[in-house]
Every structure is written in C-alpha cells, then in structure tokens.
Amino acid sequence: MRNLVLIGLGTVLIAGAAVGQPTGEELGTWALRHWDDVGNGRLEAVVAWFAPEGGVAFLGGPADGFHYGSDILHAWEAFFAAVPARGYALTGVTRAVPEARLVYGTLELDTAGGSVTVDSYLRFSGDGKLLGADYVLVHGLGPAGPITDGSLGEGEYRNSVQDIRSGVGLHWRNGLVVLFAALRSPGTGWVSAGFDPVNRMQGANFIIAAVTPAGLAIEDHFGSGTTSHRRDRREDVLRAAGAVAGGQTVVEFVIPLDSLDPEDKPLVPGGSYTVLLAYHRSSTSFTTLHTARGSVQIALEK
Q: Which long-range contacts (CB under 8 A, 24 or more apart) does 84-88 make?
C-alpha cells in the first residue's frame, strides 16, 4: 500500500521502507525547522529529529565528538548548557543538495554571553529524519573546529600526514556527514587529492584545485583509468578556499562523506583509505602533468 505524504511544497512516495528522493524544497523546509529548534534551545524537539540509527558529531566546543542513540540527548544537553540559545539568524549561504540528501548553512546563535557561530551539515532520510548532523564551532566558544578560509590555524585539524615523495601535506577532520580537508603543497601551481583508488588512479575521487589571479579554481574529478582522470558530471565540493604565500599553496575544502554520486567514493567514519597526492610547482592548468606525486594512508574519526 502506498501513501502520498505532502511535505512543504513537495511530495514523497512512501512504500514500506522505500522512500522517494526528497526535493530541495523539502530538504530546505526540514533543515529550517530543525535549525529553528536548535536556535531556540528546544532540547527535546532537537533530539526528536534524529532517526534511531542517526547520530550527531560536534567539531569544537564542549560536546566535541561523535554521539549516537541515547548519547545524542546527553550531547545536546552539554551543547545547550554551554550555548543557551535564545534566538538565531542564518548567515552566509544556505544550500540544499537533493542528490546527496544534504543541507548546509551557518547559524549565529544568540546567547546571554554573546553570539556563537556554528556551521551545520545535515543529512536526511527520505521521510525527513536526520541520519547525520555535523555541527562545527566557528566563533564564540573555543576551541573552534575546522574553518574553510584558505589558512591553516594552529590545531584546526586533528589529523595530518606529510607525503615524503611529493612534499604535499594533508590535514583532515570528519564528522558523520562531511569531510573537512586541507592540502599544503610546496609550489604555487595546482594541488590534488585522490581518495580511495582501486588500481593506481582508477576509481579515485579526485579534488584538484589551484589559486589563480581570478581566485580559487577547484574541480571534482573521477579516476577514469589507471593513469587518467576526468571531470565528474556532478560537482560535489560544498565549500572551498585557498591562498598562496611563501611559495606554498594551501587549499581547504569540504566534501560529503557519501555524495550518493556513482563517480565519487563513499567514505565511512572509522574507515582507512589510501589518498593520492600530487602538485605542480607553478602551473595552475589542470591538464599540466604533475611535478611530483605520492600517496598516504588516512583513518577517519568515528
């Protein structure tokens, strides 16, 4: 038996456990309602958004870490004890990505002690429950989580590794919804990371970026062969920033852990992955062969 459920401006077909793909309008409506509960400190309402298998990750602040099941309530209790929100405003860009069932935005929470800014990344099930939520402390209550601004702050990323062969450094943190990454290269040209290759370059999810006179250029690529890659049909970089200083390039970016894009590779919290790293000493053209390349192993937090 099928039930037609009307939510906001869209429709979802529910047949047993099979739930249709939510629209951007539905995702936006759910996110705004959830953020309204967070912004007004409604503890029980916030916790009720989470599916039984869902979880929340706080990056920065008193509840830093991953929380599931009954621990979700305790985590939000700790958050609201430190951030007694009594109102909020959405700032910057708020975006829904229907293909990934993902919404992200920035909340400025009003408290008696001043404002606290958090970035929020939400992943919904087809029926509007939260499968995962990442809340990243940006300003107002230390220590902060990763901030995508093109610079590497002290302690900004909990994890890092340096590739000896290429000289490229990779820094990262992850939540349950997204991966925060930073690349530092010893040159002023393009720099790239290829996540979870199958055979040499084949099957890897590549992020390639360069800081140009016109600003940051960044693309999402797919390892189409053992020594080749091409641009994805769908771009899945959510946020990015970069800068060149002292002959080095720093690029920070945020990508979904699982974009549901067949040309991307899902990354699972707690999983270990190979990452291919490469850069060019001076060229910002993505078709120019690398100056050096190598690989590293990373383990995601859980």
A: 84/41, 84/111, 84/112, 85/38, 85/39, 85/40, 85/41, 85/109, 85/110, 85/111, 85/116, 86/40, 86/41, 86/110, 86/111, 86/112, 87/39, 87/40, 88/35, 88/36, 88/38, 88/39, 88/40
Decide if 63 is inside a domain. yes
Mean pLDDT confidence for 2-18: 26
Range of the domain at 96: 22-139
Q: What is the mean pLDDT of the chain?
A: 91
> What are the tens digits of pLDDT across the range 73-95?
999 999 999 999 999 999 988 99
The length of the chain, given as a count of residues = 302
Same domain assignment for residues 94 and 165:
no
Q: Which amino acid is at 165?
A: R
Residue 18 has pLDDT above 90, yes or no: no
Residue 13 forms part of a structural domain: no
Q: In sequence order, what are the residues at sequence separation of 6 or more whose Cβ sits closer than 8 angstroms to the Cβ of residue 219?
A: 207, 208, 209, 231, 232, 235, 237, 286
For 291-300, how does the pLDDT look when each residue is reduced to its tens digit (9 = 90+)? 999 999 999 9
Tell me how many degrees the CA angle 156-253-59 measures, rounded to the nearest 5. 40
70 and 108 fall within a common domain = yes
Answer yes or no: do 130 and 209 share one domain: no
Give 175's contacts (C-beta < 8 A, 6+ positions apart): 57, 59, 66, 121, 132, 134, 136, 257, 269
Is 10 inside a domain boundary? Answer: no
Q: Which of 49-53, 105-109, 260-264 has the lowest mean pLDDT?
A: 260-264
Number of structural domains the chain divides into: 2
Please report how many Cα atoms fall inside a 13 Å half-sphere around the Cα of residue 51, on the Cβ side: 14
